[in-house]
Amino acid sequence: MIVEQLPLLEDLPFTAQVILSRALFLLFTVFLIVVIRRIIKMILIRPIRRWGERVPHLNPYLILNTMMLPMRFLAIALAIGISGEIFSVGDSIDAFISNVARTFLILTFLVAAYRVIDLLMPSSVHLSDITGIEMEERLIPFLRTAVKLIIIVLGVFIVLGEWDYDITGLIAGFGLGGLALSLAAQDTAANLFGFMALVSDNPFNVGEFIITPDAEGIVEHVGLRTTRIRRLDQAVIYVPNSRMANSSIINWSRLEKRRLDYTLTVTYSTSAGEMRVLLHRLREMLKSQEKVDPDSVVVYFMDFGDSALNVLVRCFIHITDWGEFQAEKERLHLEVMQIVNDLGLDFAFPSMSLYVENIPPVSAPEDVIAPRLSRRERALKEGRIVEEPRRAKTSDDPEENITGQQDEDDDPNA
Questions:
Q1: pTM for the whole thing?
Q2: Would you give the end-to-end CA distance of the chain in angstroms?
Q3: Of the candidates 238, 290, 294, 368, which lies 20 to 30 Å from 360 by C-alpha distance?
Q4: What CATH topology corresponds to 204-253?
């Protein structure tokens, strides 16, 4: 011990020497902490300020505030290490002091890395300006939390290993626990990774109209587990992010222009000259429109249809909004109708002409013989009531006809 080398204290008892050496160790350590901390400040403050002035979106005082705690741990580690080398207070105590110094040194780098994460990743803009890495803003909080968790877990393993703890069992326990958790929350983990894939790839944003195999509508919310889509009939569909990430997505809201494509049909009574004039006017009309891409105009007499002459009309319109596109398409259709009417042409529609040969002659109807009616039947037919005279019943009369039918024939000429 260094106390034994002092002439004035070498006659003290061993216990007093140990206590005195430990007290001197503590006092010297505190003194070194103060001195080393000031030296570190003098060495690091000026370079950090210069670096903060060169890098945009970085405040030098914010950098200094971030690095203050790691510098304190570094001063403590250096002071304890130097004091342990100067004051030898026993083998076991020396080993303990060495472990403490190394622990504080490890904490210095871990705390610095932990706090630098907040400094570098407050937003995607800061991350891009400092590191040049482009990342979606919504992914920053999850990435920042994941990196911090990794730093904490590594720090715990490194410190435990420094104190000669067997971390093999701990690592195996973490592995088994992680396996059980992953099996139990397989769908949740798949949806979480699906969310990260959707955020990083950014195939759509909230408010855009998309079409997927599972849903079609406007995106209202992208959560950790599901994506909420409102259909055109106002029904809401919740699609798991894992399925969204693995399916094809059509995003209609990111169109740069929309296509107008249809077939115009005119009747076969149209002559070749009228067809040439029609094609010319259609091309000139479309190319003169402000919102129509003139290089995309396609107007051709395509083919002879079953009941019409088919004209292909195709162009691109620099409108992305669906409602505005429908209004512009309506206006162009009216222009086309006006051109067809001005030329005296007619639109064709599916029709069929039927030609019949060798029509058989139609025979004249034969004279219809009117049926012979009795006087009573004629009266009934004309709506008159005829009463027959009654006579007294004799024994020679036949039995009464209970059915009311007439047995003897009436005189048709009566």
A1: 0.49
A2: 166
A3: 368
A4: SH3 type barrels. (2.30.30)
